[in-house]
Amino acid sequence: MKKLLIVLLSGSLFASCANEASKEAATPSFNMDSVKAAIDANNAALISSMKANDSATFVNLYTKDGCIMADNAPKLCGPAGLGQFLAGSQQLGMTDLKLTVTEIIGDNTLVSEEGTYEMFGKGGVSMDKGKYIVTWKKEDGVWKKYRDIFNSDLPAPVPPPLKK
């Protein structure tokens, strides 16, 4: 009886270990260095597409349900909203953008990028600077921007006093 119990427990322990090993093998490997490289490449393509006013490339850098949440503006989502954001940036006179990544954290399902930005207009004049957070999600095996939120470090303009 004792031998039977030992055999049953050993078999159960072996099955449990084998099950854990198969779960680990089924989980996709996650390499933060490759994610950082993908983010850097996406950010470079974002800046290039904004400079060229290339809405097709710009929109493709986001997931199909991607959204931008800018200061003092409504949330813009999907290809139409993202295209609208790019058109608005062009109308404001933005000619260049500098992104500085300060932190990237996450796992194989979602990644968060934190950083600072500076927008430039004609003649390289700084138009705005602030901070941002982008949530990244894989779509069709590619890391893409899912939620993009940023806000200015510059003081808000003071409204004129109300007339009586």
Task: Describe what this molecule looks like in 3D.
With 164 residues, the protein is α+β, with helices and mostly antiparallel strands. 40% of the residues lie in helices and 35% in strands. It is built from four helices and six strands. It has helices spanning 2-26, 32-52, 55-60, 78-91; strands spanning 62-69, 76-77, 96-106, 110-120, 126-139, 142-152. Strands 2-1-6-5-4-3 form a six-stranded mixed beta sheet. The termini are far apart. The relative contact order is 0.14. The model is unreliable at 4-10, 12-18 and 21-25 (pLDDT under 50).
- Overall mean pLDDT stands at 87
Quaternary structure state of the chains depicted:
single chain
> What structural class is derived from the secondary structure elements?
alpha+beta
Which stretches are poorly predicted, pLDDT < 50 over at least 5 residues? 4-10, 12-18, 21-25
Radius of gyration: 24 Å
How many helical stretches? 4
The order of strands across the largest sheet is 2-1-6-5-4-3
Counting DSSP E segments of at least 2 residues, the number of strands comes to: 6
Distance between the termini: 97 Å
- Give the overall shape, derived from the CA principal axes: globular
How does the major sheet shape up? Answer: 6 strands, mixed
Give the amount of beta strand, in percent. Answer: 25-35%
Topology, element by element:
Layout (H helix, E strand, L loop, with lengths): L1 H25 L5 H21 L2 H6 L1 E8 L6 E2 H14 L4 E11 L3 E11 L5 E14 L2 E11 L12
Parallel strand pairs: 1-6
Antiparallel strand pairs: 1-2, 3-4, 4-5, 5-6
